[in-house]
Every structure is written in structure tokens, then in C-alpha cells.
Amino acid sequence: MGVRADGTKELIAVADGYRESTKSWSEVQRDLSRRGLQAPVLAIGDGALGFWAAVRDVWPETSEQRCWVHKLANVLDKLPKRIQPRAKRALHEIMNAESKKDALDVVQEFEAQFSATYPKAVACLLKDSDALLSFYDFPADHWRHIRTTNAIESSFATVRLRQRITKGAGTRLRALTMAFKLLEMAQKRWRRINGHSLLGDVVERVTYVDGIKLEEAA
What we know:
The protein has 218 residues and is mostly helical. It has helices at 22-34, 49-58, 68-76, 84-95, 100-114, 119-126, 129-132, 143-146, 150-166, 172-187, 199-203, 214-217, and strands spanning 2-3, 9-10, 42-45, 63-66, 208-209, 212-213. The protein has a two-stranded antiparallel ribbon. Helix 9 (150-166) packs across helix 10 (172-187). The protein starts with a strand and ends with a helix.
């Protein structure tokens, strides 16, 4: 899924692959480049290593943003249930902080609070901390759209539901056709992103600090 200059979202590729491997992702990205897509300014995804390895190879200039919804689930999965509500509040505080400095301060507090007893949860957060906070370098109006992959996940839920109902699509071609048609229909309901007038700044790589254009923040 990509975003056009007027802020509308558009389906740009549907492909199958082998276990989200680097090779499979590279094929998708190189095909997009052949079709005329310039390197994205920002790529948003979960922790799939194959995707990010392919991005760094095919579009090395593209910035990386990890999905907060996936990260929240992964961190909480490494904590006992009685601790999860407290940890979840802290993680939401990081994600919703008004500035990168404020977010990093809460990251340090999270580390100090949980590292001794739950080192795996802390390590899971810290290993992607930079990529989790990339959104601060973009207009604040865009933050809600670029912190997660929710737009794709919610649309693909329809594909998974149809697959369960039909008990599989039969062949590879039929599966791809079904996914494409369902996503093409879902595309009609995708709403335009906030702050679409600022997309020109993003494409021109205008510097933003904590969501504010640098010249306005000065």
C-alpha cells in the first residue's frame, strides 16, 4: 500500500512469497521499481527481517518505521499477565510522547523498571527503538498513519476470513486473484490520510523535528 500526492491510499502490489524471505520481498520491491515507483521516503512494517533486508538492498535511502502494534504485542508476550497492564501503559506513553526526547526518557524508565526481572521484554523494545521513533521526523499530522501497519492488517483480515470460509483458494493463481480482488474492493473504503497537503514536504525531504517543520520550530 502506498500514498498518493493527494493523500489517498493505493494498492500497489499483491504477491505471494516464501515465508517473507528476503528474496521474495526483493522481487516485489524490484518489480515496483521497474514499474516506475521511486524509492519510498519511509517504509513501515513489522519485524520481518526479510522485508527490511530487502529494503536496505533495493531502497537504501528509505527510512524505516517499525509497527508499534506488532512491537507492543511482542514485548507484552515476554511479560507475565499481571505485569502486562503496567507495561502496556508505559509503552503507550512512549508511542504517544510529544517529542522524541520525551519518548526516549520513557524508554529509559521502562528499561530501569523491567530489565532486572524481564530482560527479554526490554531487549525486544530496545533492539528496534530507533526505528520505532522514526515517525518524529515526519509531520505530526501523519503520525497516526505511519506508526503502525494497521491499514494493511485490517484490510488483509478480509482476505484471511474469506480463505477460512472457502477452506483455501485451490491454486496459487486463484489465491492471488482472490486476494487482489478483495483488496481492490477494500481500497475503495480506504480514507485519505490527515495532513495530505504536507506530503510535498515529505517527498522533498524537508526536515521535520518532533513533527514540526524545522524552520517553524526555530
